[in-house]
Amino acid sequence: MLLRIDHVGIACHNLEEKIEFYESTFGLTVVSREVNEEQGVKEAMLHVTDGPSGASYVQLLEPLHPDTAVGKFLAKRGEGVHHIGYGVADVTQALQDIAAKGIKLIDERPRHGSMGASIAFLHPKDVGGVLTELVETARL
Ligand code: V0V
Ligand code: CO
Q1: Counting Cβ atoms within 10 Å, is residue 62 exposed (0-12), middle (13-18) or buried (19+)?
Q2: Domain VOC, which positions (predicted)?
Q3: Rounded CA gap, 136 and 68, in Å?
Q4: Tens digit of pLDDT for each residue in 25-73?
Q5: From the centroid of its chain, how far is CA 98?
Q6: How far apart, in whole angstroms, are the C-alpha atoms of residue 8 and residue 86?
Q7: Ligand 1 atom at minimum distance from 70 CA
Q8: Which of 115, 127, 136, 138 falls between 20 and 30 A from 36, CA-CA?
């Protein structure tokens, strides 16, 4: 069901500073910057590699307000890995299959993600403490 690691989501206080760090330390390149009001984030995707089933990225996330998913995470845990995003072929189907196994979904249906993707989150409490995102890449 999982095709690849699409992205690792990293929570930070200052997006511009962290972009600078990832560019200068690892030579990564920003391929997208977006504000996602629904998710409460300002985010950037930095391209890591292209594989047979699609690309992988680092996603840097800065909260738009303290009372958001990433804002609360930063206050509780500080900067660090926030979620893992896995590529799937069909996010609606994947949600249905995973829900049938009794795993708690955060999103019953897909939402708008970075670069036109359809995304959905699974609850970390049912995934061994890992906030898990499913990503269906936008078709060109
Ligand atoms: C919270 N918890 C986490 C966590 N955030 N555990 C692992 N990883 C995380 N990132 C734990 C937290 O320690 C608590 O555990 C418990 O969950 C409840 O946390 P809370 O602080 O009370 O917060 P809630 O319940 O209000 O919200 C937590 C959830 C929320 C995970 C439900 O953050 C959420 O809905 N996230 C999905 C949306 C999201 O994260 N969007 C931002 C990325 P204890 O203390 O009870 O043990 S947007 C994105 O990735 C995009 C757009 C994209 O990729 O395209
Ligand atoms: Co993400």
Answers
A1: buried
A2: 4-137
A3: 23
A4: 999 999 999 999 999 999 999 999 999 999 999 999 999 999 999 999 9
A5: 18
A6: 9
A7: 42
A8: 127
Structure tokens of 32? 């997208």
4-136 belongs to which CATH class? Answer: alpha beta
The finding on whether 132 has its CB within 6 A of some atom of ligand 1 is no
| Site of tokens 């840097």 | 60
Tokens 């269906």 locate to 136
Q: What share of the chain is helix, strand, coil (3-state, %, to 5)?
A: 25, 40, 35
CA of 129 to the centre of ligand 2 (A): 16
The tokens of 8 are what?
A: 């690792």
| Domain chopping of the chain, boundaries | 4-136
Closest ligand to Cα 126: 1
Residues forming beta bridges with residue 8, ordered by sequence position: 58, 84
Per-residue model confidence (pLDDT) at position 139: 87
Instruction: Write the DSSP string, 54-102.
Output: EEEEEEEEEESSSSSHHHHHHHHH-SEEEEEEEE-S-HHHHHHHHHTTT
Tell whether ligand 1 has an atom less than 6 A from the beta carbon of residue 76: yes
